[in-house]
């Protein structure tokens, strides 16, 4: 298990936007942290009320948004317009090219979300969009599949061989972790014990195929687990 501590991440403060970068992104570059397998970006963003990212392009990337607090308004040139709330998972396959915007839906309250980029299995596909809600009860004290290549078990579908699980744990909760290949575990909030090590908000850990992964809640916590080819 290789641990990536929250305070080791890149950081950018633009006033209206404060962002932590788990992997190299924009002006933050660290050749030791360019991604993990197909996982390329995990940005933890906090956006002030009334602000956001204006229309901008993407191509050939699987982009997942995961809202932690507040509401995020999405619009794109495919005609989609949605508001995301905590528990929602949005997937946008940029493919041959898409233009979208993301704004804090509130003028007063802050927006806190994760943006995740996954390199696609195939380039040049037709762009597409999907958004689904995953109620807290379905993630409590268990791993809930929220994204997968075939959209299994009601998850959003990905153009890559990746399984993304979300779990919420209370102190003392311990559940069996799904069998993984390469794995990346990211603590969204709270604190958990992973293989005897304490990981807190923003901390992450990488695992090789076959590594045992034991997760026990230390307080109210939320965790993402990526299973990667």
TrEMBL record:
Pfam families: Pirin (PF02678), Pirin_C_2 (PF17954). InterPro entries: Pirin, Pirin_N_dom, Quercetinase_C, RmlC-like_jellyroll, RmlC_Cupin_sf. Residues 145-228 form the Quercetin 2,3-dioxygenase C-terminal cupin domain. Belongs to the pirin family. It comes from the Bacteria. This is Pirin family protein. Residues 9-118 form the Pirin N-terminal domain.
């Amino acid at each position: 298990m290789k641990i990536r501590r929250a305070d080791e991440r890149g950081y950018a403060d633009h006033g209206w936007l404060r962002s932590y970068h788990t992997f190299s992104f924009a002006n933050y570059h660290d050749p030791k942290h360019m991604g993990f397998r197909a996982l390329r970006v995990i940005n933890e963003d906090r956006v002030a009320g009334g602000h956001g990212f204006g229309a901008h392009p993407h191509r050939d990337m699987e982009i997942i948004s995961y809202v932690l607090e507040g509401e995020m308004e999405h619009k794109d040139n495919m005609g989609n317009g949605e508001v995301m709330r905590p528990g929602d998972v949005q997937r946008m396959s940029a493919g041959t090219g898409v233009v979208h915007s993301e704004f804090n839906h509130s003028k007063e309250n802050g927006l806190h979300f994760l943006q995740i980029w996954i390199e696609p299995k195939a380039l040049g596909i037709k762009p597409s969009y999907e958004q689904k809600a995953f109620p807290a009860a379905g993630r409590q004290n268990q791993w809930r599949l929220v994204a997968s290549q075939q959209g299994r078990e009601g998850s959003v579908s990905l153009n890559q061989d990746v399984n993304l699980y979300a779990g919420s744990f209370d102190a003392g909760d311990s559940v069996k972790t799904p069998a993984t290949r390469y794995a990346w575990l990211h603590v969204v909030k709270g604190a958990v014990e992973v293989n005897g090590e304490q990981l807190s908000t923003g901390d992450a850990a990488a695992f090789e195929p076959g590594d045992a992964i034991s997760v026990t809640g230390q307080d109210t916590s939320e965790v993402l687990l990526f299973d990667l080819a």
